[in-house]
Design a protein that fits this description.
It is a single chain. Helix content is 54%, strand content 17%. The chain is α/β, with parallel strands linked by helices. It folds into 3 domains: 106 residues, Rossmann fold (3-Layer(aba) Sandwich), CATH 3.40.50; 79 residues, Orthogonal Bundle (Helix Hairpins), CATH 1.10.287; 146 residues, Heat Shock Protein 90, CATH 3.30.565.10. β7 and β8 form a beta hairpin.
């Protein structure tokens, strides 16, 4: 049974509409004669669709809609305005607040059910697609996570076993080598788990339109240059390649969280260092245009083919046998998904065995 909430202060209209909809066995109807009662019913019953008048005393339809959209439990409910006015300005304002449709009084039987059926059908399609994507995510995690975790975990177990069996016969240098091996494997294990959780969080974020919009609207890094430079220098030092790093950056406010900027830089700089040889330069530069801060990372490494670039997606790991020890191929898709949150994007220009240049387009903060 689909629950339809009708909020209408004109009692004859309310009763007639309720009676009309209740003729359909698949629908059950909730009614409210004012906005306050309507909101109470919406929060209590979480209807599948709301029909709401615009012009009402105390709380008008716009305020009802605004409140509905701000509440996580009700924010995705399809919302159709009932109005005696058909001015474009009213409709535009309603659409900006998140209304799905308008029914102009007097409306016909066919118009009512066409609007209801259309919105419920669209919602079911979205839910079905979301459920399919979540199932695919669960399957991918279930099939790939154990394999990806096994390599660093085996490294930790083997090193620990070596210490247990031979510690008394090992000198300090050998113990330190085993210790370093355990530490490196643990770091890789932590990175893998963090990436899987980050990817899952991003996929869930894209299902929550209200949270997504809030993050997009309220995130800013005023001074990205020192953050980007610091990440690049720290990673280069870890790879003992500080002299290979060439950094020249501009410093303009960008629309992103510091956490997401850090993750983008961490993944891209790590790839550039990982897949290029020592004593070959890595260039980190930036430019700006009217809309974007463009971060460029160029390395003289193994490069990618056009086919490999086109297949960038979750769980795709290029040249797996040769570079299997380097970890999951999830990093680039995480970068792409983060950029999509803020209406940014990624460009990759590469030539196998010669170079790769990645361009990260992040919106300038207004």
């Amino acid at each position: 049974m689909k629950k339809i909430l009708i909020i209408e202060d004109e009692i004859p209209v309310l009763e007639n509409l309720a009676e009309l909809i209740e003729e359909v066995p698949e629908y059950t109807v909730l009614t409210a004669s004012d906005g306050i009662k309507g909101l109470e019913l919406a929060m209590e019953h979480i209807p599948d669709l709301i029909l709401c008048d615009i012009m009402m005393p105390e709380i008008d339809g716009y305020e009802v809609l605004s409140t509905i959209k701000k509440n996580e439990a009700t924010s995705t409910i399809p919302f159709i305005f009932l109005t005696a006015r058909s001015e474009k300005e009213d409709m535009r304002h309603g659409m900006e607040l998140g209304a799905d449709d308008f029914l102009t009084k007097p409306f016909t039987y066919k118009e009512v059910f066409k609007a209801i059926d259309s919105r419920l059908s669209k919602t079911e399609q979205i839910m079905s697609k979301s459920e399919k994507q979540l199932n695919e995510l669960r399957i991918n995690l279930a099939t790939t996570l154990p394999h990806e975790l096994r390599t660093p975990l085996n490294g930790i177990l083997a090193s620990a076993h070596l210490l247990i069996e031979h510690f008394d016969n090992m000198d300090l240098t050998e113990v330190k080598q085993v210790h370093n091996s355990i530490y490196a494997s643990a770091k890789r294990l932590n990175r893998l788990i963090t990436n899987y959780l980050t990817f899952a969080d991003l996929e869930l974020l894209f299902k929550d339109k209200q949270k997504l919009q809030s993050l997009k609207s309220n995130s800013i890094v005023d001074s990205p240059e020192p953050i980007i430079k610091d990440i690049a220098q720290n990673l280069a030092a870890n790879y003992k390649r500080s002299d290979d790093l060439k950094v020249v950056l501009s410093n303009n406010p960008i629309n992103i969280t510091q956490e997401h900027l850090y993750k983008i830089c961490e993944e891209l700089f790590d790839n550039a260092l990982k897949f290029s040889e020592e004593n070959k330069s890595i260039y980190v530069t930036s430019t700006i245009n009217n809309e974007y801060y463009i971060l460029k990372i160029k390395d003289l490494g193994i490069g990618l083919t056009p086919e490999q670039i086109s297949k960038i997606g979750a769980y795709v790991q290029f040249d797996r046998k040769l570079h299997e020890q380097q970890g999951s191929g999830l990093g680039l898709i995480i970068v792409k998904r983060i950029l999509q949150v803020y209406d940014g994007y990624l460009e990759i220009e590469s030539e196998p065995v010669k170079h790769t240049e990645i361009r990260v387009y992040m919106r300038l903060s207004k």
